[in-house]
Amino acid sequence: MAATSPSIRDSYTADLSAALEVAANSTTAKHKSASSNIFDYWSEFCAQLGCAPSLSDVPTQDGKISHLLVFGLRYRLFGQKGHSVRADTVKDALTAVGQGISDLGQRDPRKQVGSEKLHPLLSSFIKGMRDQDDPASRSYPVNVTILRHMLEVLDTDDAEYGRVNMHTILLCIVAFWWLLRPAEYLHSTDPDARSQAFLFKHIHFTIDGTIYNGPSAPLNDENDLFRITYATLEFSDQKNAVRGEQVGHKPNKDPFFCPAKALGRLVMHLRKHKAPADTPIHMHYNNHPQHRCWYPTKSTNITNGLRWSAKSLEPQTGIPPHLISARSLRPGGATALLCANIDSDAIQLLGRWKSDAMLRYLRIQAAAHAHNYSQRMLDSGSFTFHPTSYQEGGLPNQAPAAIAALLAHEELYAD
User: Fold this and answer.
1) Is residue 157 domain-shared with residue 250, that is, in the same domain?
2) What does the DSSP assignment read for 364-415?
3) How far apart are CA 39 and CA 41, in angstroms?
């Protein structure tokens, strides 16, 4: 460009500026839906400092890291709603910023030069925030006692609301045994979220020695549920999952609180109302004359149902209802496995955190077949807490002493 005329350079510079503006607007719109306006917050932050959102005018790596650290600290203190947020929320915000900068054609400033690893200062910053996080602000793990009590407090025979109550309970069972994040089994308002709900076609059964997917499974009445010898969920678009991987459970001895039978009941409902194969498993059909249409099951259905069930049980379980949410089922299932003395590596694989993707499929399938986690979770899932022990970082009364680090793992409580 140095050899070109001033008019050509000016024209090029103007066009480049316009092209970058188009790219910036596109990236901002993309992150607005996928990352809750985080890149908008970053752009405003950069405008206050007088630098470009791409950090292209910040010459050194140390300068870029300094900007990220200050943004991360402010996001930690105020988030998007004026109150402090947890370390993993800050990490997700910084990830969205890094991806947005990459979309603008610049190198992700979070990473070390020539490496995919985070800059050491950023890693230490995130670790330090995690060490400060209060364990009591996490959702309490739900136990089997609370799940069982849901059948008593939610009227599944009500003409208008019985179906949503039944669907709520069945989804709780599935989420507890498969250690699911809320977005993996419930309606999400973010179509671009990293995890999406399992679909009807992602359910598979082994029945009388033959494998069927959900839409074709020969399940027509309650008696057919007891013919299921294995039930699996196929991962296709869930966080930290290997696409096409299937994770399953054998049925346990309980006629209702069983992961295989719960999936079977969901399938019978979807089949009865002729749901397409790509129907999310959270959808339920309300046959009441005032409705007669499909509805999604939302996190409020799950949270309200669990809290209502837990209210009268607090003296028995030591679990405060107000700290229970749809997020409680994932740590609840993991805690049941831990109390059953299941190997922590296997639990990490089933929960999809800190695992080796190459070994995951064979190891978790072999372990699930050999050890019947479903029955062991049922047998050990009625764990209890001493009063205030959870706020103080305590473990369930029935937990082996060596599980504290795994229960404290942030992945267990994140969406």
Assistant:
1) yes
2) HHHHHHHH-HHHHHHHH------TTTTTTT---TTS-GGGHHHHT-GGGT--
3) 5
Q: What values do phi and psi take at 247, rounded to 5? A: -115, 130
Q: What's 119's DSSP letter?
A: P
Same domain, 153 and 100: no
Give domain status of residue 1, yes or no.
no
pLDDT in tens, 83-99: 888 887 898 899 999 98
CATH assignment of the domain containing 352: 1.10.443
Query: Which phi and psi (to 5°) does residue 284 adopt?
Result: -135, 150
Residues 45 and 162 in one domain: no
Q: Are residues 101 and 201 in the same domain?
A: no
Helix, strand, coil percentages in the chain from 3-state DSSP, rounded to 5? 55, 10, 40
What is the total count of domains within the chain?
A: 2
Q: Which of 105, 133, 161 is the last residue of a domain?
A: 133
Question: DSSP letter string over 74-112?
Answer: HHHHHTTTTS---HHHHHHHHHHHHHHHHHTTS--TTBP
pLDDT at 360: 42
> pTM of the full predicted structure?
0.61
The H or E element spanning position 228 is strand 228-234
Residue 263 domain boundaries: 144-412
pLDDT at 84: 83
Q: Which residue(s) pair with 283 in the sheet?
A: 296
136/389 Cα distance (integer angstroms): 9
Angle in degrees, 0-180, between the axes of helices 329-339 and 344-351, rounded to the nearest 10: 160
- The CA distance from 269 to 283, in Å, is 10
Per residue in 292-328, is it b (16+ CB within 10 Å) or e — as a string? Answer: eeebbbbbebbbbbbbbbbeebeeebbbbbebbbbbb
Instruction: Mark whether 230 and 122 lie in a shared domain.
Output: no
Distance CA 187, CA 296 (A): 6
Q: What is the mean pLDDT of each run of 10 residues along the chain (415 residues)?
A: 70 70 48 62 92 92 93 90 83 90 90 86 88 67 94 95 97 96 84 76 95 95 96 81 81 96 97 96 95 94 96 89 90 85 78 51 46 80 70 66 62 63
Statement to judge: residues 100 and 200 lie in one domain? no
